[in-house]
Amino acid sequence: MSREEINNQINELVLAMAKDPQNVENYHKLSELYLQIEDYDRVMSVLESLLTIKPDDVQALVGMGTMWFYEKDFRKSLSYYNRALEINPKNFLIYYNMGNVFAEWKNFPKALFYYNRAIDLNSTNPEIYNAIALLYQDNEDYIESKAYYEKALSLDPENLTALIDMGNVCFKLFDYETALELIQKSFCFKS
Fold it and tell me: What are phi and psi of 56, to 5 degrees?
């Protein structure tokens, strides 16, 4: 979609919101459009407006948590995730995102705890296994890291992150042949 098309959709949504300011779906659509054009201040503004209308909107709470995460304000991020978790404790994405916050804080046990809760709710998402593998890799436990990358690749054999990072782990384990194989494989998928 071109920038002009996105701007037209934004204008249409703004008009629709003026006519029906309680329609939360319009807020979600508008925040997604602003995200596409990387206008993060407007994404946050729209989500904040949505939360004044519907304070228990889990998608908006997670969105705000994610925006604050990328702003590196992890405390605010965590506060939004905690609010979302109170409303929907069965949403794996909330636990995954909370794991990311604790990983940024280098709090390995808490990050692992939240990632494992995410797996309890969605055991087929390779990104969770990638995150755990990266935790172990950061702690120089390369054998455990490799096992989690293998799990991620069993779920998504073309996962570039897992291929490259597992290649790096194999290199650290002095398994140069496998490392080279994985890195070469990742280049095949990029093209």
Answer: -105, 25
Distance CA 61, CA 77 (A): 9
Tokens of 47: 């989500």
Q: How many CA atoms lie within 13 A of 102 on its CB side?
A: 21
Total-model pTM: 0.88
**DSSP-assigned letters across all residues of 36-67:** HTT-HHHHHHHHHHHHHH-TT-HHHHHHHHHH
pLDDT tens per residue, range 1-14:
788 899 899 999 89
Residue 172, both tokens: 């650290």
Mean pLDDT of 94-116: 98
Backbone angles phi, psi at 126, to 5 degrees: -65, -25
CB 62 within 8 A of CB 53: no
pLDDT tens-digit readout, 128-168:
999 999 999 999 999 999 999 999 999 999 889 999 998 99
Quickly list DSSP for 88-149.
-TT-HHHHHHHHHHHHHTT-HHHHHHHHHHHHHH-TT-HHHHHHHHHHHHHTT-HHHHHHHH
Find the distance separating the first CA and the last CA of the chain, reported in whole Å: 22
